[in-house]
Amino acid sequence: MTDIAIVQASFGDPAEAALVARKLLEERLAACTSLMPVTSIYRWQDVTQEAAETVMTAKTTIELATQVAARIGQLHSYDLPVIERWPVAVDEAVAAWVRDATG
Q: The domain spanning residue 59 has which CATH number?
C-alpha cells in the first residue's frame, strides 16, 4: 500500500464546485475529482444553519496536498472555506496513476 492524499471542500453552488474541480485537473494538481450533493448542518455566527452543498474530493499526491488546498482556497467563494486533507492508503497501481496524472 502507498499513500496518496484526499483533499475535500464543500461548496454552496454545484457549478462552483465543478469549476474548481476542473481547474484542479487542468492544472494537474489532481488526478480525479468527485462531486457529491449533501445537506450540511453547522453553526455559523452563533446560529445553527442548514444548507444544500456540494462536497468536492480531489485525489492527489501527498506532496501536492497543501498546494491543492491553497488553490481551492484561492478559488472558493466562502468567507471561511473548510478545506480538509488527509492521507489515504491505496494500491500501488492507483498511486502510480495519481502520480502520473499530476506529474
A: 3.30.70.120
Cβ(19)–Cβ(27) under 8 Å?
no
N residues, the chain? 103
Q: Are 35 and 14 in contact (CB under 8 A)?
A: yes
DSSP 3-state assignment of 55? strand
At 58-90, the pLDDT tens digits run: 999 999 999 999 999 999 999 999 999 999 999
In three-state secondary structure terms, 64 is coil
The reply to whether the predicted model has a pTM over 0.70 is: yes
User: Max Cα separation, the chain?
Assistant: 46
- What is the average pLDDT score of the chain? 97
Range of the domain at 17: 2-102
Give phi and psi for 73, each to the nearest 5: -60, -40
